[in-house]
User: What shape does this take?
Amino acid sequence: MTRVALVHERFTEFGGSEAVVGEFVETWPDAQVFAPIVAPGGVRAPVGAVHDSWLSRAHSLTGGRHAPLLPLVPRVLRRLPLRDHDVVVISHHAFATQAALATAAPVVAYVHSPARWAWDREFRAQEAGGRAGQLALAALGTLARRGELRAAPRLTHVVANSHAVAQRVTDWWGLPASVVNPPVQVARFTPDPAVAREDFYLCAGRLVPYKRADLAIRAAQRAGVRLVVLGDGRFRAQLEAIAGPETTFLGATSAEQLQDMYRRCRALLMPGIEDFGIVPVEAMACGAPVLAVGSGGALDTVRPGVSGEYVPAGADDEVVAALAELMGEFDSAAYDPAKIRDHALTFAPEVFRARMRGVVDDVLAGR
Assistant: This one.
């Protein structure tokens, strides 16, 4: 039996990367899972026992904040007990590839993205929140860049979650990368033929700067169309300050209400540049078309004329103008909900598992 080790950076909250690790466990049920930081309640089925480190105890002393511990994570990863495994599969955000230095076994790195805040100064400025935050993130970014470059020669195969991320791997690490899009729980989101589409656009997700909900709000104002914003986050107050009466904020919501909005919206908006983007695929699973900026992960998920449309990437004012023009004239009835859903099904978990199993099998076979 092949001895597989799975490495993740931290289990402190549940998101898309933790869902990926869950699918890894489904693919290799006997694998051992390692992560330097595990918070109470941070692990969900099917992930079971996780081999953590003393950083989990330190995490509890920081009041549940992982950021102060990040400079210590690379050292812990380099000392993981991975020598007895036949292959190591890594889930990487910023530091996890350091685990490649703890083993002589083949290493497959599934890259959600190289540390974008470490390599992209403009992105870092959006996320840092003030001069002190920028300085702290810049210092951490230097550590992340050095670590990623140090580990890169030890990676047997790199898998990126989108073509945009694969290009970053090439640009920043100097390595080729294949692409396996992440799993989306499309079976949980379904169309309802009895529910009619209504005259509003939807913007859903965490309200953080890089998601660029501000562009959707400005475009709705310019086009004079209704917009519903679902989600919460630190950027909400700023967004509410620029919104007009055509925009409604509903805050955090249940999966049931989210599905209902996917089913009823005229279209979902994707105004930010995502590494991949789970929300658009969920919306498409409900038969909703997606209007997206034509860059980043949207290029993997949105098929023009079938599941939605692009507006060109560009300066903020250009994106707002193009999105407003498209919103003003968009006809959701021109898109077949069944074809949209069929496209969404290509991102199902079973597709992801089969493709990742094939990658690892090829690596072990020396192909």
Observations:
- The chain has two domains: 4-183+348-364, 186-346.
- The longest helix spans residues 131-151.
- The chain has 15 helices and 15 strands.
